[in-house]
Write a structure and sequence with these properties.
Layout: H1 57-60, E1 74-78, H2 79-85, E2 91-92, H3 94-100, E3 109-113, E4 123-126, E5 128-129, H4 131-139, E6 143-146
């Protein structure tokens, strides 16, 4: 086989549409552009979103809200979740929370909230604790350690 023998697969190449070559071609006279107007001229039409000089939609609608570029995404874990996922006497840190599936990876911190009850004695290391979470963990005989 030689390069000059290679051909494209059957049906992969369509013939070029020769526009503006007489009425018999089906693409004669206006060459498929309709009659007159901005879209029929060379260089094609206006930009996307242009409404013929009318105030465009994206400028008619009022601005609302903002994105705080300094906001931190903090994962939330409830005390009841810790009770379900971990064994008595275990040490719970961010890596253990990620392994257990309670926390997504690559967040700016973890906060433990006091929703639910805890009966197991756990040493919990997190970035933030709510007052009720700290109280419940220590009441169960565990420790709430704030990581820096």
């Amino acid at each position: 086989m030689k390069l000059n023998n290679l051909t494209a697969a059957e049906g992969s190449n369509r013939p070029v549409k020769r526009i503006g070559r007489g009425p018999a071609s089906g693409q004669g006279k206006t060459a498929g552009k309709g009659h007159k107007g901005q879209k029929a001229r060379a260089g094609r039409g206006p930009r996307i979103g242009f409404e013929g000089g009318q105030m465009p939609l994206q400028r008619r609608i009022p601005k609302r809200g903002f994105n705080n570029i300094f906001a931190k995404e903090i994962a939330i874990v409830n005390v009841s979740d810790l009770n379900d996922k971990f064994e008595d006497g275990q040490e719970v840190d961010v890596n253990a929370l990620v392994k257990s599936g309670l926390v997504k990876d690559k967040l700016d911190g973890v906060k433990v909230l006091g929703n639910g009850d805890i009966t197991k004695k756990l040493t919990v290391k997190a970035d933030h604790f709510s007052a009720s979470a700290k109280e419940k963990i220590e009441a169960a005989g565990g420790k709430a350690v704030v990581q820096e």
